[in-house]
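Support request, please re-run this one:
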Amino acid sequence: MTAASQSSPKQPTASAGGRLRWLDGIKGLSILWIAYFHCYEAYINKGLPSPLDADYFARLIHQLNPQSAIEYVAAIVEGIYAAVAGVGFHAVGVFIVMSGFGLSFSLARMDGPPNGWRAWYASRVVRLFPMYWAAHLVYLISPFEARLEPVDHRFLLSFLGDRVFPIYTMFYYLNPAWWYFGLILELYLVVPLLWALMKRVGTGWFLVICAAETILSRYVFMFVLQASGYYLLGAFFGCRLWEFALGMLVGVWYWKDREWVYDQLFSMRTLVVGIVLYTLGLYSYESSLTYTVTDALIGTGLFVILANIALALRHLPKLEAAVAYVGVLSYGFYLIHQPYVIRFGEFARGWSMPTFALVAIIPVAALAYGASYLESWVNGLTDQFLRKKDAKPEAGIKRAAQA
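Re-run finished. Output below.
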């Protein structure tokens, strides 16, 4: 980074180890919002209107039936809170963008995988599977969690990475959050093709092609095949390719010119565009045809919005550091959290919404801390195992030389 960019008031602060807090902050904000949403969803138990309904506020006010001006204001505040909490699942799209960003930034920095794609795949397996397996084992042995489905033969399929076939019984099996693992596996499988396409046609055409493929895939699954909606959510990677491709594009741009990315991403113009895209995404739920672009609009717009919020947290350094820390170790939190926050949400159903809104922060924060500790331990154990494995051939060579 140039001296000019370091001195610019726009520039985000860096975390230890050279990480940028705005990047980790996006992931931290996303996973905390997702976890809180799952807790909130279990708490309301479908007892309130969906914030995605066109007449959401009218239906909510009618249901709450305020009898005074004060109660009416309280109902509006409660409605705003419920709307924000109730769309937390939208942050999954931001995670898809960030996954593409991280991969392409690393590939751009090294001009492709330095040891070939085979070694790259091996590194991805080592990154993904140990914590995923640990989450399965934690689910088996831990108490105080929601048991949504029985542990049967599907547990082994899930343990091996299958979250797609058979689609209706595997996609949300046991821990619904694990569906995302299947999507990431699919996207990683096609990264070499995507990388080659980007290098061949350039970043602009690359995004256009991936956007067109996304819309076409969603159209085919909805109108031609009339298949399960799970495919659109992520059972087929092509239905979420726009978000991943956007992340890849921004990652390459970021490597080439960080200062330009800062100026563009954190400008008021881009923030307004992000808000408009997210709003259009909300309205696109209204028809099946416009739903072909819903996740793309929401993921794109929300990425911009959360990036700017993450940057704004620099004015609260302690909160910024805490959110960034959660973001660094968000993978374990994502894999672990859902059965526990569902259990807490079910437990809290008799509480008033203001009480729940505040107290629910405690289990979410506790799970974030516990899962980050577990992920650090699993990663350390994996690294230690791999170091020992790599050291064995060297030890054999030394003994042979001494003989």
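The chain has one domain: 18-52+87-402. The first helix runs from residue 3 to 7.
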